[in-house]
Design goal:
The chain is mainly beta and 367 residues long. It has three helices and 19 strands.
């Protein structure tokens, strides 16, 4: 595995970071007996607007503060609520990221379309640059566009396509750092890709599920013909399962994997767990398992306990080696901000290995 600094592969991982809290759908079902106590009259009085804070603090890349603002609407009465909106964040390292997004559901939820367009400037200060023991600063410019369409082809089974384009440039803020980046080939990448998606989804509510499963298998074929600098492939797999027990508590677990073929370092896989900075540790392939116990406390409030472990392997590294494993544990809470849609704000603190840790305030669940 490689510790290459958070600038590498930031474009790909920012796509995931931007989209995960946005593209959760909100299927109209009861979360549990506590949530269902919300009256129909109160639901009708709820504003179609959603505004939520975004906050993260990480010793590797600093502290960022932002917001998500979205407008809910329905394309037909039997479909899940669609949303259009924007997200933005600013960090104490003078980094700025912004995204406009759209998620839509129609034809009784049998069709789904999501899209996002974003960009930003990411500045990082390193006390130990690439393990050299020397301080360094980098500035990364990023632009990204993403779209996915899904069509239901059977009971809870979906097939579709997706595309992504990223333009990512990393430069050192001093001559020495810039020369190191050039020598390592970490100066950024243009990448365009298309892929197919196979999904099974019977979750009762995708914002805060209490039952059901999600299986998602998809790929991206990055090609020079699509505007990229490299030809390579990625395969992505995730499985999520939610089980209700003990007076509204929910046990959830999440298994994910990402595999690459002929990918440059900028297309490698990363640790995707709370407590770690995406893009800091890289290897050709990744596997991760995360479990979470979600306890209802009172009214709209809940408590979450979680733990997980990720493995980065390839280039001679295997998952049975201690240096390839990245554990994480933490606790957090949640608050239901829109009961009719079961939309939540979560607050998490996660501790990873060594100095890795993170504090997060986000719209939606972690998974």
């Amino acid at each position: 595995m490689k510790e290459t600094g958070s600038f590498i592969a930031r474009a790909a991982w920012c796509v995931a970071g931007m989209l995960m809290p946005v593209f959760a759908s909100s299927q109209p079902s009861e979360r549990d007996e506590h949530a269902s106590s919300e009256s129909a009259a109160e639901s009708q009085r709820e504003s179609p607007w959603v505004v939520a804070p975004k906050f993260s603090s990480d010793p590797k890349v600093g502290t960022s503060l932002g917001f998500l603002a979205g407008y809910l609407f329905k394309l037909d009465p039997e479909s899940t609520s669609s949303m259009a909106g924007a997200m933005a964040s600013y960090s104490n390292t003078d980094s700025v990221i912004g995204t406009a997004f759209l998620r839509t559901y129609w034809d009784e939820d049998s069709k789904r379309f999501t899209a996002a367009l974003g960009g930003g400037r990411i500045k990082n200060d390193y006390s130990d640059f690439l393990g050299s023991g020397l301080p360094a600063s980098t500035t990364d410019e990023m632009k990204v566009a993403y779209a996915r369409y899904l069509q239901e082809v059977g009971s809870n089974w979906f097939i579709g396509g997706q595309g992504v384009y990223t333009n990512y440039l990393a430069v050192g803020d001093d001559f020495r750092t810039d020369e190191v980046l050039k020598a390592l080939g970490l100066t950024g990448i243009d990448s365009g890709a298309l892929g197919v998606v196979l999904m099974y989804d019977d979750r009762n509510n995708q914002n805060a599920p209490t039952a059901g499963k999600l299986f998602n298998l998809n790929n991206f074929a990055y090609r020079e013909a699509l505007g990229g600098d490299e030809n390579f492939d990625t395969l992505n797999l995730e499985f999520k399962h939610y089980v209700t027990h003990a007076e509204g508590a929910v046990f959830a677990y999440h298994v994910s994997g990402r595999w690459t073929h002929d990918a440059p370092s900028s297309g490698y896989s990363s640790v995707n767990l709370r407590g770690y900075t995406r893009g800091q540790y890289l290897a050709p392939h990744s596997l991760a398992v995360e479990v979470e116990e979600r306890l209802h406390i009172r009214g709209r409030f809940g408590l979450n306990l979680f733990a997980g472990v990720a493995c980065l392997y390839g280039d001679g590294d295997e998952c049975d080696e201690r240096d390839s494993l990245y554990p994480s544990v933490g606790l957090g809470g949640e608050y239901v901000i829109k009961p009719s849609e079961q939309m939540v704000i979560t607050v998490d603190y996660a501790k990873g290995e060594g100095e890795n840790s993170g504090f997060y305030v986000r719209f939606g669940q972690a998974f």
